[in-house]
Design a protein that fits this description.
homodimer, 499 residues, alpha/beta, 8-stranded mixed β-sheet, 4-stranded antiparallel β-sheet, 17 helices, disordered N terminus
Chain lengths: 499, 499
């Protein structure tokens, strides 16, 4: 028996002629809201399109469009000749839906979600640096010296010549011409043994570390880690389930003999041999050979993070450990965050062999398929036209000068409060404090008073380092360095007297 | 007692005046290689810089620079007045290093690395599509209709106005103006209830899925998955340790009642309610309410993937399930890969509350800190100037026409071999085969013969679907569609006759 319910009226349905929402959408929205809030009930017959159109003074077509969408989404069902009805299978036991704009809900739902990403506060607070960088934030490139016009010119060329074939999904390993440019640069400048086929383009070092963790790290596996060392690498590998073995590190890198003797079971090591982070030294060739030999004999993977080797002031860049290793046990990590700009999000991994390349290409595809294509093309343009080398050369000169300025300031004003040594490279100096001072407390106090510093101890886990403060100098001009340093010394004095 | 070893000679040291390698680097390279290969032994005294300079006819400064680098890297040690010596602590038991350029090593080292990324072949083979897309690759935007000039104009503006503050590390959640543009678009066009503060910018849907897995998925947890459904989501969640519960899905989405009854313990569900992938239907509002109600009562998270809802041809886009859910249980996933271009790598997540936003911002920072900044700025420029809406409108008209063309072709030439139904939206049709035909074998056969298709069964796990082939039509013009379809039908005929 066909339903012969009365036509229902649609309460309050009026169109807003001034609205940018199309008329049929307004009708649709009003009726669906009325159904959801149970002003109109399941099984009720809808007014015919002709009747409704007349009653609100619009063309019948508008009502037909609205009904079509309501039917498509299951609000109403209809059959020719019998009219449309509010769907029977709408569950009327459901509470009425309130349609209102809400601000973001507070965390009541998700308070219980344990997000245990060991992401440092520094890491998440980066945005605040937009307001105006303060000395001695580390490590920040001198972004005001970035060659904006040249970069823009490269970008124009890329966007002018962009073809539809570029826009589609592409090689997960990265844009091939860029990989060729990087390989050529690394061979010439870092003595890295590599071809474009060994390179995987990443969204920066952080993703590179995550890819390594996802391909190589197994739960419970041990890895050696310099102490003090780069805590973000520590965070990524331990998050993946590995156990960190902290190896005491000094100016000339970490103690390979101690590590071999005390923790021979580790199967991965993360190091910064060209420029130990944060202490700043270079691992001598003897230790390098000890390490590569041990790695070969013990099937250990060496992760070489060569994060800022471009900035060597007294010599050229230090040749990579990768180039010295004849056993193919090294995964080499590089980034453009320090030499160009962090917001670019382009880094790379150089892998030792085909099997590894295949595994990492899969891991990258699984993570996010590939890097953004146009950024890769712009960077390729920038490198292949020689701009990269020119920029590096300029920054090397600028940064060396800035280190000299800071060092002279420390020598002149540091008294017995802080001392520092000339560094052959890098983007920061360490201002060593008196041994009785807690660098972590001092750093917190300075940060609260407008001087941005990080304590050496923030990078140490098991072995207590001498107290010191990392002073990034590359992003600051002479005046900023001078004002910053004098302010810092005044603050330290006040603090020490108070203690 | 000071060493009084004889000065050693440096065998074969000659400079190449034509080389681009600086003279001091040539000296350094030659000597370090001689030390590594043990032509020069530990403890031997180096010739004085003056003597060596004279013997090879260069300025003494060049030799001093070379010695400085050799000392920095630990090859030699020196003291004023006593001369330089090859370092004692170089381990002479190490085998001699051979310095030669090698091609990429084969996988001997790493054959044993088990990379178990469930990345489909289709996924990794995308690059081959560069050579020239073939019908009926799915889903590909009509990239030859991409507004290159307008996009380039937006890019020029961004690069012209780029400031150094943009280049630094930025908000892990994504560029705020872009998030505002997306939120506004989603509120108006998808009935998504959201503010910019709820959005996390991702490198596309694949990263969005990984972030969800890393924040919400626990080992052994159950999740509902449409069957057939989007296999990449299945891959990401199971890779993270969750157990997939496959729920039979039809044209109107998956069977909520069946899922509730048979698998009430699941705490996550992944769905494509606006346009079921791959079947193409819309989940009716009754089912949507059933699901959100169940999710609220059972603390289940709903992942709504709204991947191509922009392309609805007979009505406007379907309002999101997120907008209907009053309980804040929905994580909404969107992407620009389908509506703009895949190589852009920008997608987004809309999260239900503050706690979730905080967790995901940390997860994103941990994964790769943030998206590339300039791409976000270009996209913001493109959206805020109305180009996005215009482009969508054009593509909607174009894609609708292309669907009509393909449908007409199938009706005219499909005979009893394939049939298809008009779809209200999306980027592909399903060509249903005779029920006795194995769609997977048929697809393999067609692919081998130059017709790119995917079988429906490739997306099914537990429930056998009717045999059919996914035909993407959006990227192909009338001639390509016609030629492709005729070729496909000829091939199917030949294959069936052979069987």
């Amino acid at each position: 028996m066909p339903k012969i319910a009365h036509h229902i009226s649609i309460p309050g349905l009026q169109l807003d002629a001034a609205s940018k929402v199309p008329a049929y959408k307004q009708v649709y929205g009003h009726i669906s809201a009325a159904i959801l809030s149970k002003q109109i009930r399941a099984g009720q017959r809808m007014p015919s399109s002709r009747v409704l159109a007349e009653s609100i003074g619009v063309s019948r077509n508008i009502i037909l469009l609205a009904y079509e969408q309501l039917e498509l989404e299951g609000y109403i069902t209809g059959s020719v000749g019998k009219g449309s009805f509010v769907s029977e299978h709408l569950d009327n036991d459901l509470p009425a839906i309130k349609h209102k704009k809400e601000k973001i809900a507070t965390a009541e739902n998700t308070q219980h979600i344990a997000y245990d990403y060991p992401v440092s506060k520094m890491f998440m607070d980066r945005e605040s640096s937009k307001a105006g960088k303060k000395p001695f934030q580390n490590p920040e490139p001198a972004l005001d010296h970035f060659p904006f016009k040249v970069w823009a010119k490269c970008a124009y060329k890329v966007f002018r010549e962009l073809e539809f074939s570029h826009l589609n999904y592409n090689d997960a390993q990265g844009y091939f011409p860029l990989r060729e440019a990087i390989a050529s640069y690394l061979r010439t400048n870092r003595a890295v043994n590599c071809e474009a086929g060994q390179i995987i383009i990443t969204n920066g070092t952080q993703q590179g570390l995550n890819l390594i963790a996802s391909v190589l790290v197994k739960k419970g596996q041990q890895f050696w880690m310099e102490d003090p060392g780069y805590i973000n690498a520590h965070a990524v590998f331990t998050h993946a389930g590995a156990n960190a073995i902290h190896i005491p590190a000094g100016h000339d890198g970490f103690d390979v003999d101690w590590a071999k003797k005390n923790h021979p079971d580790a199967s991965l090591v993360y190091i910064t041999p060209s420029h130990q982070f944060p202490l700043g030294g270079t691992m001598p060739v003897g230790k390098r050979l000890l390490l590569t030999d041990w790695a070969a004999k013990n099937k250990m993977w060496i992760v070489e993070d060569d994060y800022d080797n471009e900035f060597q002031y007294t010599s050229g860049p230090i040749p990579s450990l990768q180039g010295l290793d004849q056993y193919k046990r090294v995964l080499y990590l590089g980034t453009f965050s320090k030499v160009l700009f962090p917001g670019l999000r382009i880094g790379y991994l150089v892998l030792p062999d085909e099997g590894m390349v295949k595994a990492f290409a899969h891991a990258k595809a699984f993570a996010d398929r590939q890097n953004s294509i146009t950024d890769q093309m712009i960077l390729h343009e920038f490198m292949s036209n020689g701009h990269f080398t020119i920029h590096l050369r300029k920054m090397r000169v600028l940064y060396k000068k800035r280190q000299d300025v800071l060092l002279a300031l420390i020598n002149q004003y540091g008294e017995d409060l802080i001392r520092a040594e000339k560094q052959p490279g890098g983007m920061h100096l360490i201002a060593w404090l008196r041994e009785d001072i807690n660098d972590s407390e001092m750093a917190a106090y300075l940060n609260n008073n407008g001087v941005t510093v990080l304590p050496v101890s923030a990078y140490a886990v098991k072995f207590k380092p001498k107290p010191g403060l990392l002073l990034g100098y590359t992003a600051f001009n002479d005046k900023q360095l001078t004002d910053g340093l004098l302010k810092m010394i005044t603050l330290i004095k006040a603090k020490i007297v108070k203690v």
